[in-house]
Amino acid sequence: MLGGYKYAAFVSRVKRRTPILRETLPSGSLTGLRIAAIGVSVEQSADPSRLFRIAAFWNYTAAAAFCLPSSVLSLFGMPTPVPSLYPQMAAALVATFGLGYHLVARNVTRNHGIVVIGAIGKTGLFALFLAYYLAGRLPVLPLVIVFGDLVFAALFVRFLLMQHRARVSAVTESRDQRAGSRSG
């Protein structure tokens, strides 16, 4: 994990190079983080399925990008040439996760395992890209793009925590009602 100084320096570099993030990223922490360009916010939403529809679109777009010719991928710092099998495998995996997010969007009370795996995968992906960037083996543009996955991971965790709190509250309320009806 990035220490406080390194994280602040990283966010500062990203903000300088990316105008949309310059306006939306808070200084020094992920609290309140949002992607204004696509309307996603960590703040509680009346329609959590929107988050997962946008996440599905994000993944479908990334999967489509992996299907581009390697000459186009090289513009984003991807090494070329690579056997076409590798980007096609990545596209299939990314698209499969997009389908999973679409399933969650259809019914946000189910399929939370997909959300957990998505949060872990998106965090791991960002960590991998960050390690390559810090080692000087990756330009900043792919890291900035994959930063969106880290934002989605934070949003997924927030969603899971809100769902957990809602379940605990419902169980407590139900238990209190049963206790009240017995004593009354």
Description:
- By secondary structure, the chain is an all-alpha fold.
- It has one domain.
- The longest helix is centred in the C-terminal third of the chain and has 44 residues.
- It starts with a helix and ends with a helix.
> Ends: how far apart?
54 Å
Topology as a string of helices (H) and strands (E): HHEEHHHHH
This entry's quaternary arrangement is single chain
Strand tally, please? 2
The overall number of domains is 1
Instruction: Name the average pLDDT.
Output: 78
The helix fraction, in percent, is over 70%
Strand order of the largest sheet: 1-2
Radius of gyration: 20 Å
Low-confidence stretches: 18-44
Backbone shape: elongated
Count of alpha/pi helices: 7
What fraction strand?
Answer: under 5%
Largest sheet data = 2 strands, antiparallel
Class from helix and strand fractions: mainly alpha
In short:
The chain is mostly helical and 184 residues long. The chain is built from seven helices and two strands. It has one domain (4-40, 49-174).
From the structure above, extract its key features.
7 helices, 71% helix, two-stranded antiparallel sheet, single chain, mainly alpha, 2 strands, 184 residues, elongated
What's the SSE blueprint?
Elements: H1 4-17, H2 19-24, E1 34-35, E2 40-41, H3 49-66, H4 70-73, H5 85-106, H6 112-134, H7 140-183
